Amino acid sequence: MLKLQNVNKTFFPNSVNERVALSNIDLELGNGDFVTVIGSNGAGKSTVLNTIAGKVSPDTGIVDIAGRNVTRMKDYKRATYVGRVFQDPMAGTAPDLTIEQNMALAERRGMRRGLASGITKAKRTRFADELQVLELGLENRLSAKVGLLSGGQRQALSLLMATFSQPKILLLDEHTAALDPERARLVTDLTEKVVAEQELTTLMVTHNMGQALEVGNRLIMMHEGRIILDVSGTEKSSMTVEDLLAQFTNIKNATVSDRTLLQ
Ligand SMILES: Nc1ncnc2c1ncn2[C@@H]1O[C@H](COP(=O)(O)OP(=O)(O)OP(=O)(O)O)[C@@H](O)[C@H]1O
């Protein structure tokens, strides 16, 4: 469903600000794979997501979504294939528009302009049905401005909207990080439910190692632009947070000793 082949990205090459963000990334996700992505700051996690979404154009390599080479396809054209939820609850929704207006926009994602139709009664009923799944009572607040919702409610709505047009790939960029533990739990549970129901192929970046182990069927760890750990199935489910921390420590030590060797 998703294939990254030998993807490289360096920001500001050949300058003092040069940053190697992605280095020979090869990654293949099957239909319905739910992959959690961890790694230290600057490891390249967001750049992987941005490359898939088309926000970042790779220097070399191929991005293939559902058998289509989208490497040079603009982000707005890819929007039909890719749903995304960001860390900031304010990012995925328009605060001055109502819940139903936001949902109508999400529904039209990736469509050509000029095909707009009003929010019909049938549509309203469908939106209400969709919202009921969240169990937050939002189905009774269709005409409320989204700016009035709490962060957790907005993230739940963002998630629903991101999956509305049944994308091929769902990208979650630390989408529970800004929420309090209770709301983070709610949005995590909801994520698992929506992903399972729609069999969505999903990449979820998180700094929460417990969450990375608990959620999904596969986990990758990134470091300095590379994928340095890729576990799934029982190997993943038998891992503990301590195991992951030990991996981090090993890498950091290895990196330090590599540098020492190179000096
Ligand atoms: N638009 C950009 N312009 C310049 N450098 C960038 C840009 N985006 C990312 N980088 C650099 O690329 C590297 C990888 O960044 P990225 O944001 O992908 O890391 P990350 O793993 O998501 O980190 P974090 O956990 O801190 O969000 C870093 O060195 C970063 O400074």
TrEMBL record:
Q: Write out the GO MF terms.
A: ATP binding
Q: Sorted alphabetically, which PROSITE patterns does this protein's record hold? A: ABC_TRANSPORTER_1 (PS00211), ABC_TRANSPORTER_2 (PS50893)
| Keyword Cell membrane on entry | yes
List keywords of the entry alphabetically. Answer: ATP-binding, Cell membrane, Membrane, Nucleotide-binding, Transport
Entry's SMART domains? Answer: AAA (SM00382)
The record gives the membrane topology as: Peripheral membrane protein
List locations, semicolon-separated.
Cell membrane
Where is it predominantly found?
membrane
Domain of life per record: Bacteria
**Where is the ABC transporter domain positioned along the sequence?**
2-249
PANTHER family under this entry? Answer: NITRATE ABC TRANSPORTER ATP-BINDING PROTEIN (PTHR42788:SF7), TAURINE IMPORT ATP-BINDING PROTEIN-RELATED (PTHR42788)
Record protein name field: ABC transporter ATP-binding protein
- List the source organism: Yaniella flava
| Species lineage | Bacteria, Bacillati, Actinomycetota, Actinomycetes, Micrococcales
